[in-house]
């Protein structure tokens, strides 16, 4: 597990996100340092996935700022500050990679073609260079032997690992993972988490939304608990799981442990 660096790679400053009259994120402030693994937990509807989507600039924000290495790449639409220029947005696309719950692989392309597509078309990488990069990434996620296979012939876990390799092909500085194991059968979850653990050991900066508490305990440098669109608590995993400071955090973890215990008894 990589220790966080002294200077934040990403800073989210008083970010507000609304859908109509509904405030989904209410003044979120968060910083992530290079090499840090941050896990975000919380009940459904707390704004976790929206946080990642705003950071990846898939959703506009109404107030606040997102900065990468001190450069504002997203500002609130309700504020008078100038919008980021095209160069800043291009920088953001290269700096942040995201993997979703659904795999979103192109079904008519092979695994290798899925991974090489963005480097060739977005970054202008030569086909030979893109293929060499893709093969190395597929090796890292344990799919080198599936390079010429179409997604329909892969298991869910293999498809998710291919999606991780595709995101890594853009050589991002930070990877966002949005409940990437939630759509998988239980026996396939471990292989995806193993891949993510490997990325953490290699020093990849990661912001992970998950309900996998074992992963959070073992891999995270910090755990963030969100509820009702706000950050309730942020602490190292040993503290947040053994002695959370906030009553809402304790209540959530107690309910989660009760459900996990019930699931184990049912099996």
Features:
single chain; 267 residues; alpha/beta; six-stranded mixed sheet; four-stranded antiparallel sheet; 39% helix; globular; disordered N terminus
Describe the structure.
The chain has 267 residues and is an alpha/beta fold. Helices cover 39% and strands 25% of the residues. The protein has a 6-stranded mixed sheet with strand order 6-7-8-3-9-10, with helices on both faces. A 4-stranded antiparallel sheet has the order 2-1-4-5. A hairpin with a 2-residue loop joins strand 9 and strand 10. It is globular, with a radius of gyration of 19 Å. The N terminus is likely disordered.
Whole-number mean pLDDT = 89
What fraction of the residues are assigned to beta strands by DSSP? 15-25%
Fraction of residues in helices?
Answer: 25-40%
Largest sheet strand order: 6-7-8-3-9-10
Q: Report how far apart the termini are.
A: 32 Å
Globular, elongated, flat, extended or rod-shaped: what is the shape? globular
Biggest sheet descriptor: 6 strands, mixed
- What is the chains' assembly state? single chain
Low-confidence stretches: 1-5
Tally the beta strands: 10
Question: Quick gist of this model?
Answer:
This protein has 267 residues and is of the alpha/beta class. Helices cover 39% and strands 25% of the residues.
Lay out the secondary structure.
Elements: E1 8-19, E2 22-33, E3 37-41, H1 48-55, E4 63-68, E5 71-75, H2 86-95, E6 96-99, H3 111-121, H4 127-140, H5 156-168, E7 174-178, H6 186-201, E8 205-209, H7 213-219, E9 222-227, E10 230-235, H8 237-242, H9 247-266
Parallel strand pairs: 3-8, 3-9, 6-7, 7-8
Antiparallel strand pairs: 1-2, 1-4, 4-5, 9-10
Helix pairs in contact: 3-4, 3-5, 4-5, 5-6
């Amino acid at each position: 597990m990589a220790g966080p660096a002294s200077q934040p790679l990403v800073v989210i400053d008083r970010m507000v996100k609304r859908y109509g009259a509904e405030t989904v994120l209410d003044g979120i402030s968060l910083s992530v340092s290079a090499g840090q693994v941050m896990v975000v937990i919380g009940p459904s509807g707390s704004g976790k996935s929206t946080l990642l989507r705003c950071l990846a600039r898939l959703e506009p924000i109404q107030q606040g700022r997102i900065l990468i290495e001190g450069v504002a790449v997203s500002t609130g639409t309700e504020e008078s500050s100038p919008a980021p220029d095209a160069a800043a947005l291009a920088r953001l696309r290269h700096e942040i990679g995201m993997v979703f719950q659904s795999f979103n692989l192109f079904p008519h392309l092979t695994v290798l073609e899925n991974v090489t597509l963005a480097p060739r078309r977005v970054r202008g990488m030569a086909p030979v260079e893109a293929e060499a990069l893709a093969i190395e990434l597929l090796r890292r996620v344990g799919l080198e032997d599936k390079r010429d296979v179409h997604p329909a012939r892969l298991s869910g876990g293999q498809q998710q690992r291919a999606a991780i390799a595709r995101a890594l092909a853009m050589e991002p500085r930070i990877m966002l993972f949005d409940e990437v194991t939630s759509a998988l059968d239980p026996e396939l979850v471990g292989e995806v988490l193993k891949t993510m653990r490997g990325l953490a050991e290699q020093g990849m900066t990661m912001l992970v939304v998950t309900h996998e508490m074992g992963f959070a305990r073992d891999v995270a440098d910090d755990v963030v608990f969100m509820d009702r669109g706000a950050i309730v608590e942020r602490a190292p995993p040993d503290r947040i799981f053994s002695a959370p400071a906030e009553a809402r955090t304790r209540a959530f973890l107690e309910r989660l442990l009760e459900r996990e215990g019930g699931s184990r008894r049912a099996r």
